[in-house]
Amino acid sequence: MTAAQPILVWFRDDLRLSDHPALHAAAGTGRPVICLYVLDEAAGRPLGGAARWWLAQSLRSLREGLSAIGASLVLRRGAAVRIIPELARETAAHGIYWNEIAQAAQEAIAGQLETALANIGVGAESFPGDLLAAPSAIRTRDGRGLRVFTPFWRRLRALGDPPKPLPAPKALRPGPDLVSETVESFQLEPTSPDWARGLRENWKPGEPSATDRLRAFLAEGIEGYATARDRLDRAGTSRLSPHLRFGEISPRQVWHAARFAAAERAGLGPDVDKFLSELGWREFCRHLLHDEPELATKNLQSSFDAFPWKHDAEALGAWQRGRTGYPIVDAGLRELWHTGVMHNRVRMVAASFLVKHLLIDWREGERWFWDTLVDPDAGSNPANWQWVAGCGADAAPYFRVFNPVLQGEKFDPEGSYVRRWVPELARLAANLIHQPWRAGPLDLASAGIKLGSTYPTPIIDHVKGRERALAAYAKIRAN
Fold it and tell me: What is the pTM of this model?
């Protein structure tokens, strides 16, 4: 063993330099550091199209950040359990460091990798890095994970603040020059057609952008968050979710920055507490995923296995395209297609509409979100869909059917959100924009609307849809 033998740092969903325990430990050894990202598309759930676009930009940002402190980013494609031992042999690596991901597929790969490295005499070290607390820290007396958020959140808070974030290395001792693929060779971005224009207009992936967004939100946006976060016509959310999804910022960084803001500014306590509870919900979903690896495909409540879902490709397509005839639902699906996100309140309304008004299996909606979201978290996305459907952990009762008209009138009272994303309705008055079918002939004509032509009529009546959903639910309860 010599001081020239490098440490190889394997990056995964942690595309940052700050608060990166594996990178911090590697820098502390004083050895050369090789930074590696492996595009292992057979490991876990393959990314959807929008997330692949984000990954490409995030890798470019990480490469720039590493270059600024003297290191390069090596890109390889294939099975990590094969590529990493090969690279360890090629470079005579002293050890391999990585941050843990508390998900079954990733833990299995890490275990296989540790065995493969041990077989060639290379040390492996892993570090906690993607959660505020390990799943093992919050269990019931019989060792199970918690299924209800409120006691989970209470237990998480009782653990105290997580460890403070680690600083980014100021400099890294470079490793040897190695053959690397390019971000372009990964073919992560769309070309024919290039549908990512809206993503480019709305987002700048990467750690510097994540840091700036958190700082700006805590300085200017968090006041009133507890109520403003539900308003569709205001910039009331942090928009940090895709940055968290790809580990461009850590939950520990968000937590401590928010706590500092509350300490510095009197009166922010309730807003910061609500903001942190949203971070806690992400944590809750991740812990749930740790215990339920089939979260995206299997009902957590087995009674829903007998639910009489409808296979209606036409209705599903109308929902996906934002052509249901319900403006708030359609605005959300169009926002999603253009920007890669959908406002959280609308996510609930749109999901409820699919599974309850249309009786379409929640898994269809979850798959659509997985492909079109830039923030498709492996825990939150399926857990939230199961929550809305009524079959998940801490689930909303099935009889809670969101009324899309009332939701629009309450959270988009002037119709600003709908006007932006459903421009064919832009000239309707606020009292009609969430229910254009109630507009009279003169109102429609003056707004340039022909229902059924320029904008669809509702594909299902709300009252009838709700009654049908409750009847279907009654059937599985009776069995």
Answer: 0.96
